[in-house]
Design brief:
- About 60% of the residues lie in helices and about 0% in strands.
- By secondary structure, the chain is mainly alpha-helical.
- It has one domain.
- The radius of gyration is 26 Å and the shape is elongated.
Length: about 60
C-alpha cells in the first residue's frame, strides 16, 4: 500500500480551498448580476407606486394613528 506524502495533503488542501473560493466568488457574481438586472427593470418604470406596508409605526391601521 502506498502512502501519500505530507506535501500532497497540503497541496490538496490548498486546491480544495481555492476551489471553494472560486465557487463562492462565482456565486456572488451571479447574484450581483441578477440583482443589477432586477434593479434596472425597476428603474425603467419610475411612475409605479409600490406600497410596502399599510400600518403605521405603532401597528395601527386607522388614519392618523
Amino acid at each position: 500500500m502506498r502512502h501519500s506524502s505530507p506535501e500532497t495533503h497540503v497541496s490538496l488542501r490548498k486546491l480544495a480551498a481555492r476551489t471553494r473560493l472560486v465557487i463562492a466568488l462565482l456565486a456572488i457574481a451571479v447574484l450581483a448580476l441578477a440583482g443589477a438586472t432586477a434593479l434596472s427593470d425597476t428603474l425603467k418604470q419610475p411612475d409605479k407606486l409600490i406600497i410596502l406596508s399599510t400600518t403605521d409605526v405603532k401597528g395601527k391601521t386607522s388614519p392618523c394613528g
